Amino acid sequence: MKRFLFLLALLPNSGFGQTCSCSDNLEWVIKTFTENDAGAQATIESKGEQAFQEHNEKFREKVKKINDLRTCTPVLYEWLLFFRSGHLGIQLLDQSSGGQQLSEEEAIEKYRKERTYPVSVEAFEEEMTKRKEPGFEGVWASSGYKIGIKKEGENYMGFIIEADGVYWHERQVKLEIFPAEAKGQYKASYYMRDHSLREFPDVKLVGNNFLQAGFTVWERVSPQQENDAAAEAFAKDSEILAAQSPFVRKLSDRTALIRISSFAYEHKSHLDSILSQNHETITNSENLIIDLRNNGGGSDESFYGLIPYLYTNPIRVIGLEYYASPGNMQFMQSILDDPESPGDWKEWAGEILAAMKANPGQFVTTESEQVYVEKRDTVYSHPNNVAILINKGCASTTEQFLLAARQSKKVKLFGTSTFGALDISNQAEAPSPCNEFNLVYCLTRSKRIPEMAIDEVGIQPDHYLDPSIPEYEWIDFARGILER
């Protein structure tokens, strides 16, 4: 069983004292990641020691001129990308509140002086009411925010009109849109709730009244436009994608839909309940569509309830190995020492720790077999055909589910390739020496590799849905294939 474990205290906070420069933090990240991450050494061997040292020197020069933590942490994350793009990270902590959520007063004080755009909000809103064309410029709303987007040369500046007044204030810059390399395409810089930066490679208008930038969707407030067919379809699909809780919906007499946005362990009981309540609907439907778009993973246990509806033949599951580093041994020991750790966790950690101590610096496992074969007694006659919708937002546990699901004779994958973050997995966190951020790395690697690698490649669909089929039409497209 693959577990996702998060460590609050892995390594002692020592080495650089209580004042850490960006250079200090980089050296600590280099040492801690390469010593403990389950995939680090294989990447260094693959790319070469010289390439690794050149990468390190490039970043040592880069951090010399950085004097603040908020500028430093994205550079530390960029250093990590030498290894892979998933299951690693730098998580900035809020020092003013001891790593806990900021109070309103603290947030107001911290963020009120962030960058603003010099514009008259009232004049801009008045101007937009008189516009006719449905371009990027306008007033847009999403998730409690109202922003204005104004053209500046070839670029577009998105600024706050209305927000919570705590993390965000009027005229602060929320979004910047730029021409992309491909002619007629756009990309964006987007600032999250805590003002941290995200880069979106694709920004587009959908119909007359929606703007999609990365994972954000904005609805037009002005200039007012009539909804067209594309906007209507997009709005319907956006509602499905935005649902935080799983649901089952009958699409027709022949086809049912299950939407699951996350396999997080805390959602498992609710998902199991939804499946139980809708068991008759699912098993009386000729076709089933499972929409997993943008499901970034969670816990393997969360998807077990889905397997019976897909099962046709034994499912082969490849095991994993733990890297026996000093830090990872300390991680296992911390589970044993924690009085709040469940009994089964302690039993598991004790077995792994014993294997690690017997084989330091090696990969270890407590599994007697490399492959586990899951057999079930029941094969449901319905659904006959199962389409699973996937895209680049599918990763980790979701990819583990897909490896199992696609072994069924009933299942076909529809969409685009997944993210590719599964081979190196089971995340742990190590606090930086000055408790400014957590370093996220991985404890395990799959026994599938190198013969069947998923990281940086993803899982490919059986039915590739190319760009001529907008994503908001994928459910209808899959249903059309199933009901032919």
Structure description:
Strand 5 and strand 6 (186-191) form a beta hairpin. The protein has helices at residues 22-36, 40-47, 49-63, 69-80, 104-111, 121-129, 229-242, 268-277, 279-283, 307-310, 326-337, 343-358, 397-405, 474-482, and strands at 89-92, 138-142, 145-152, 155-162, 173-179, 186-191, 197-206, 210-213, 216-222, 247-250, 255-259, 287-291, 315-318, 320-323, 363-364, 371-374, 385-390, 411-415, 424-431, 437-446, 463-464. The radius of gyration is 25 Å and the shape is globular. Helix 1 runs antiparallel to helix 3 and helix 1 runs parallel beside helix 4. With 484 residues, it is α+β, with helices and mostly antiparallel strands. It is 30% helix and 24% strand. Residues 1-17 and 95-99 have low confidence and may be disordered. It has 4 domains: 1-93 and 427-437, no CATH class; 112-235, Lipocalin (Beta Barrel); 243-318 and 377-422 and 458-482, 2-enoyl-CoA Hydratase, Chain A, domain 1, CATH 3.90.226.10; 320-366, no CATH class.
